[in-house]
Amino acid sequence: MQKTFFQPEFETMPVDEIKKLQDEKLVKQVKYVYENVKYYRDLMDKKGVKPEDIKGTEDLHKLPFLKKDDLREAYPYGLLATDVKNCVRIQSTSGTTGKRVVAFYTQNDVDMWEDCCARAVVAAGGSNGDVCQVCYGYGLFTGGAGLHGGSHKVGCLTLPMSSGNTERQIQFMMDLNSTILCCTPSYAAYIGETLKEKGYKPEDNKLKAGIFGAEPWTEEMRQDIQKSLGIKAYDIYGLTEISGPGVAFECEEQAGMHINEDHFLAEIIDPETGESLPIGSKGELVFTSLDKEAFPLIRYRTRDICVLSREKCSCGRTFVKMTKPLGRSDDMMIIRGVNVFPSQIEAVLINCGYAPNYQIIVDRVNNTDTFDINVEMKDTDFSDTPKGITAKEKELQSAMKTMLGINPKIHLVAPKSIARSEGKAVRLIDKRKRLGINV
Ligand code: DLL
Asked: Residue 341: which domain range?
């Protein structure tokens, strides 16, 4: 069994030493944030907590939470802890009502993030002899940049493919003998299917491992992908606010993801009360960055529901493990790897002059997410010709694409035809649940 690490001095550090390191780093990070981020200083002052009150991780519960709404309120510079001139990069993801979340990085932040991704690549069996094909999206999304940086650090020959153009992906995979594939699990499954359609057998490619994440996926899907591509499929977790992919990653055990605890302090809270829960409890995952310079976040509520475990892992890593996210404590959907909030859809409808009477239908067909939105047409459009209605659907689709980054199929339906609910409106029908996907 392969047992190599990218940074063994941290990845296999005894648990009591990790705790000591976290204690020290937390004290420094809280002081740094208090001194440099007015937004968070105000939150701490309001709660009556000073940096001196934080002596170690056991004091974490005294600190106020940060939520996605805070990021929106502080957009774009309000949570920046250093001069913009010290920053070398931004990455971004969609926010709750259209305002995007913008995360800033200094060069040290980029280095730390890439180290985390390099740990994931090595845990998946990667070394400098590998050809790592990165088909996560490049650009504002963190997937491409993160795995690209990690792959470089390991010394793999890195193919910066970005997502899409499956024909070209397959051509490069075959011609350049890719050994590691990095993309969303649904895209990996799609590549597997396309290879089969083209008459390739799993043993025809040189792939040995895949590093898949950014969206929920099941054990069944893992088995399918492993079979169709002839590889071992590893999960990877992360979020833009905290850095990107590589906050946690799977090892050869393929049973939960090790959190890079020397950089990110994880806790589980009750999403209703905010109370910290003991290890092993199911609850909302909250992260505190321990050594970020540009965009440090203290007690950031991820809204991802999961369970942490300190059980000894046969890989030798001592970092705490998290389960796959088991759901969310908000209404965010992940469709084709993109985060989508119903509030964004409402904002587009209102901007385009529609009433916010709509229904979102998401499904997964042939391993690809389908995304349909039924929208009640305006009374004045009801007598329009079919051609006129199609043109309006296209117009709305394009406005949605601009807001969300992905293309839904829009269906304009008769006014008042979407069922009204007496309680909470049922805006979302997510048929992926039938596949056991935790949405
Ligand atoms: O999805 C970062 C990433 C890129 C992770 C590539 C892994 C690989 P965001 O776009 O900010 O960042 O979305 C973050 O995606 O809070 C989870 O709800 C979800 N998510 C991320 N990884 C997984 C995973 C990237 N392995 C949000 N399984 C998170 C399930 C995941 N959900």
From this structure: 333-435
